[in-house]
Design a protein that fits this description.
The protein contains nine helices and 15 strands. By secondary structure, the chain is an alpha/beta fold. The protein has a domain of 30 residues.
Length: 322
């Protein structure tokens, strides 16, 4: 009898201790969330009319969410992600193709667009192409990204190299291209290349024409350089735009939000989709970012700055999870 009572007491102590520790951990790790713009009512996703797959055997669908991962991409993980679009680097760290045609097709069967990331404004020295590049078209190293060098993107060698890479990715079955570092034109303007802005616009248009000539349903999505969105000879040749740090930067409110939103909202009004990317680490900022992005009819995504992992979080107050 004494043993039974003793056992019950011990069990009770362990039980209460377990829940006590869990409660203490939750109190210590819980991040309070305060939605700042309480009057914002999330809108439904703008019906773009552009949503088609390169694989015509699969029914088209809208982009409800997406993932953006350029490093440490694992096919098994990508396959199970509950997203309708993936933006990935088609190449691994050695500059070799990392996903097969059959894998891309399998992702399609899981109802995912698969978009090929390509940096069209920088030469990256780990890519297979780099060793054969003419040195006179390679500029300085990007101060924010090691091993990435600004390139004279208007030069015929670089343009043809880019077209060849785009074709290689589309041959693999990708549903379009995600074009980064268009805004490098601003650096070249400061170096006296006064035509660099128009050169950048022309480059995107030329890429788009080549992509659409293969299949008009393939997607062309530039990243940043949002000021170009009001250029008619630019916005008419793209399907959507990726925009980084529109609302937050380094976990602080971005000072350029109102300026960028003018262009991004304009893109939405023209039937383009906006992939909104945020790198906040604080849950409060993440949830406020999502709330603001949805209100502007953007498709939100939060990730680490290196885009080397998929981040999971919940925003109970706005009923959103990633």
């Amino acid at each position: 009898m004494r043993f039974t009572i003793f056992a019950i007491v011990i069990a009770a102590v362990l039980f209460l201790g377990y829940f006590g520790i869990n409660y203490a951990v939750q109190k210590l790790t819980y991040e309070p969330v305060t939605i700042e713009d309480v009057n914002i009512v999330p809108s439904t996703l703008y019906p773009t009319g552009y949503m088609y797959l390169a694989d015509q055997t699969i029914k088209s669908y809208d982009i409800k969410n997406f993932a953006y991962q350029l490093q440490n991409s694992n096919f098994g993980e990508l396959k199970t992600m509950n997203v309708s679009m993936l933006v990935v680097d088609p190449e691994n760290g050695s500059g070799q193709l990392q996903f097969t045609k059959s894998q891309i097709k399998e992702l399609h069967q899981n109802k995912k667009y698969v978009i090929a990331y390509i940096d069209i404004g920088e030469a990256e020295n780990w890519r297979a192409y780099y060793k054969d590049m003419p040195k006179d078209i390679i500029g300085i190293e990007n101060p924010d990204w090691k091993n990435c060098f600004y390139v004279a993107f208007w030069q015929p060698y670089w343009k043809q190299l880019t077209y060849d890479r785009v074709n290689t990715y589309l041959d693999q079955g990708y549903d379009g291209v995600y074009l980064d570092m268009i805004d490098v034109y601003e650096y070249w303007q400061k170096q006296g290349i006064t035509s660099s802005k128009q050169d950048a616009i022309n480059f995107v248009v030329e890429i788009s024409n080549r992509v659409k000539a293969r299949n008009s349903s393939l997607l062309v999505i530039p990243q940043n350089a949002v000021e170009l969105l009001k250029e008619q000879d630019y916005i008419n040749y793209i399907d959507g735009v990726g925009a980084e740090e529109t609302f937050y930067s380094n976990d602080k409110k971005a000072s350029w939000s109102s300026n960028d939103l003018e262009f991004l909202d304009y893109a939405i009004s023209k039937g383009k989709f906006v992939l909104s990317i945020d790198y906040s680490t604080k849950l409060n900022n993440r949830c406020n970012f999502v709330n603001k992005a949805l209100a502007h009819k953007f498709v939100p995504f939060v990730g680490p700055k290196d885009l080397d992992a998929f981040v999971h979080f919940n925003c109970d107050s706005i009923k959103y999870s990633q």
